[in-house]
Amino acid sequence: MHTLLITGASQGIGLETARLCLAAGYRVINLSRHEVPDAGIEHHNIDLSQADSESQLRELLAARLPAGKITLVHNAARLDNDTAAATPTANFREVMAVNLVAPHMLNQLVIPLMQPGSSIIYIGSTLSEKAVPNTYSYVVSKHAIIGMMRATCQDLAGQQIHTTCICPGFTDTQMLRTHVGDDQAVLAHIASLSTFGRLVEPQEVARTIKFAAENPVLNGAVIHANLGQVET
Ligand SMILES: NC(=O)c1ccc[n+]([C@@H]2O[C@H](COP(=O)([O-])OP(=O)(O)OC[C@H]3O[C@@H](n4cnc5c(N)ncnc54)[C@H](OP(=O)(O)O)[C@@H]3O)[C@@H](O)[C@H]2O)c1
């Protein structure tokens, strides 16, 4: 059986990815702080920003994840409104812990269990390849995630395990709504920045993630899933 191990499937893009893979017959395991609303998805409570998360993950995976065909999706992320000049180092460390160190820890623990046909899907962002103001730690982490994907691709050469980075555009989830303070006018403006005049649906990103997981020809690729952004 194909197992999906995903972080941050309690809501948003992660939840839709978990639902899609469950419906396709995968065993689905989620790691996040809040419960998953759907039966059938195995949920494990973990705060990936905490220093003890590595030992928790080691224990959990030893008990629950046998070797096999595994898709590991690094989806959980934290988005702060912060800047290069005024981000307390403690906050920067916490963002890196969730957005970068957790994918690294999971790679260490899961790659040895991966059999041919497995995959590692990183979730980047439009902000993996450009920067906007007031999103400092997130932009730093999302640029780095592309580097992690590319390095993973090189290091796993010959093992029949592939990796891809999916970079969503403005997607209609809690992360985006919280980031703009639930301001409908701002959301409408953001929607107008897509060539389709709307936000990306989390289900559309989920389908892209599943496609990448199942198609090794995308090994090493950075895929933008953003409906085409209007350049200003
Ligand atoms: N929405 C967008 O416009 C957009 C655009 C580009 C990229 N993305 C990327 O897409 C991915 C999914 O984002 P989303 O929009 O679906 O966001 P979301 O709805 O806010 O979901 C984020 C997920 O991350 C988990 N998470 C956050 N902090 C965590 C922690 N300390 N420990 C464990 N889990 C944690 C959350 O779970 P708990 O709260 O239950 O822990 C939640 O399930 C992220 O990598 C994000 O950067 C989103």
Give an overview in words.
- With 232 residues, the protein is α/β, with parallel strands linked by helices.
- It has 7 helices and 7 strands, in the order βαββαβαβαβαααβ.
- Helix 1 (12-23) links the parallel strand 1 (3-7) and strand 2.
- Helix 2 (53-64) runs parallel beside helix 3.
- The longest helix has 22 residues, at 89-110.
- The protein binds NADP nicotinamide-adenine-dinucleotide phosphate.
- NADP nicotinamide-adenine-dinucleotide phosphate is lined by residues 7-8, 10-14, 32-34, 46-49, 75-78, 98, 123, 125, 168, 170-171, 173-176, 202.
- The site of NADP nicotinamide-adenine-dinucleotide phosphate has 29 residues, from helix 1 and helix 5.
